[in-house]
Amino acid sequence: MTTPTANIAVVGLAVMGSNLARNLASREGNVVAVYNRTTAKTDALLEAHPEAGFVKAATVQELADSLVKPRTAIIMVKAGRATDAVIDELVSVFEPGDIIVDGGNALFTDTIRREKAVRETGINFVGAGISGGEEGALKGPSIMPGGSVEAWETLGPILRSIAAVAEGEPCVTHVGTDGAGHFVKMIHNGIEYADMQLIAEAYDLIRQGTGKSPAEIADIVAEWNSGDLDSYLIEITAEVLRQVDAATGQPLVDVILDSAGAKGTGAWTVQTALDLGVPVSGIAEAVFARSLSSDREARAAARDLPGPDQTWKVDDEAAFVEDVRRALYASKIIAYSQGFDEIIAGAKEYGWDISKGEIAKIWRGGCIIRARFLNRITEAYETDPGLVSLATAPYFREALAGAQDSWRRVVAGAAMSGIPAPAFAASLAYYDGLRAERLPASLVQGQRDFFGAHTYKRVDREGTFHTLWSGDRTEIEAEDTH
Fold first, then answer.
1. Which of 1, 183, 267, 353 is most buried by a 10 A CB count?
2. pLDDT single digits (tens) 217-242
């Protein structure tokens, strides 16, 4: 029988799994066992990185035998049936007290289901969101683990050893029980969708409004990265816009087909928000924008639909670019505000004790949406833990107030010129919906009562009411059963 030497295992050795295994092996105190169903991948990793000192396992039993107790294994395989299959294999060779970690992009409800099933065996199951892509997995990701407190006691030091570090703090925290980690990672990805779409809209507006080349816009974006918009996505946007296609000599952004892909987490964010009754309109429009971009047939058929005669006429380019910058920042605030609203609602629905300030902290490094202003989010929730909406915190309220004139000019100008800016427009509409003293929902509720007897409440007295719309339009007090 193999003498246990490893304190952590990685199962699944595609790029993300291999990079995570290398990251773990590079940290003092870790000995990493590795396993892949296709042994050739395991052999290739060991051959390429002998310095890592990996412990090879050819079977799951060998993997279990190589691990000190409590055994801890991180699964890095494709979400879905493959994950369930690996979990079943590990459960068959692990013992009560051992820990199975799913580090993939699992749907959080699947993680809740899996945690409940595995817990019955006495084994701990942890769903851990890992952000940062291939580079983050290798050099230090932002990690969002759920699971039990017992599992965190063993897992915490290991994850802290590999996480990104921001301002001296590792970008990992125990998010909450069962599916909390994957839930928060899902929201992270939803915000990421919005952030990317907003930057793309800002680029498109500047290019169409000024005629500047991608390289010239790259210089503008790089300058933005030294201010409030300082973030990983702004940084890489400048690099993408500067890239020239080797085959054609054209800007690469003009050679790439304008059809954006998606892997599902953005859609999950929106679907879950609908279930929770949380408006995430900016995030939703970013998801829908990708869907529209990929519908080549409909776009081709609609190419001749009429649009406005005018094009955007920019008299003062510098002022226009500054308007776009401010509109981008304001819309970005709304995206994060909506994301944290969904975190709050999800925590309430599923019984998770999630620290919003800690989530903002662990997103400061390693992850795709890392940005300077995340410290402001932490400060907002530390100052007021019961903050109803992030947009109303003093710093963000002031930032939105300072940006709103620019924001309105950009959205109105885009509409008049026929330039689609769905995420900008939806974010502004959400902002105005929040600040409206009265919304036309009263009419909607009247309509619902007319055709479906759904009842309504009044502004002047307590109770639930229904109007008998036929005959004399009598109003009666109704039982609140809807």
1. 183
2. 999 999 999 999 999 999 999 999 99
3-state SS string for the chain? CCCCCECEEEECCCHHHHHHHHHHHCCCCCCEEEECCCHHHHHHHHHHCHHHCCEECCCHHHHHHHECCCCEEEECCCCCHHHHHHHHHHHHHCCCCCEEEECCCCCHHHHHHHHHHHHCCCCEEEEEEEECHHHHHHHCCEEEECCCHHHHHHHHHHHHHHCCEECCEECECCCCCCCHHHHHHHHHHHHHHHHHHHHHHHHHHHHHHHCCCHHHHHHHHHHHCCCCCCEHHHHHHHHHHHCECCCCCCEHHHHCCCCCCCCCHHHHHHHHHHHHCCCCHHHHHHHHHHHHHHCHHHHHHCCCCCCCCCCCCCCCHHHHHHHHHHHHHHHHHHHHHHHHHHHHHHHHHHCCCCCHHHHHHHCCCCCCCCECCHHHHHHHHHHCCCCCCHHHCHHHHHHHHHHHHHHHHHHHHHHHHCCCCHHHHHHHHHHHHHHCCCCCHHHHHHHHHHHHCCCECCCCCCCEEEEECCCCCEEEEECCCC
Residue 180 tokens, joined: 């909390």
- Concerning whether 185 is annotated as a catalytic residue, the answer is yes
Q: What is the pLDDT of residue 479?
A: 63
Name the active-site residue from 185, 332, 356, 361.
185
Predicted confidence (pLDDT) at residue 482 exceeds the cutoff of 50: no
| Rounded distance between C-alpha atoms, residue 474 and residue 261, angstroms | 54
pLDDT digits (tens, 9 = 90+) for 321-376: 999 999 999 999 999 999 999 999 999 999 999 999 999 999 999 988 888 889 99
CB-CB contact of 69 with 98 (8 Å): yes
Query: Active site includes 348?
Result: no
Catalytic residue among 89, 115, 192, 285: 192
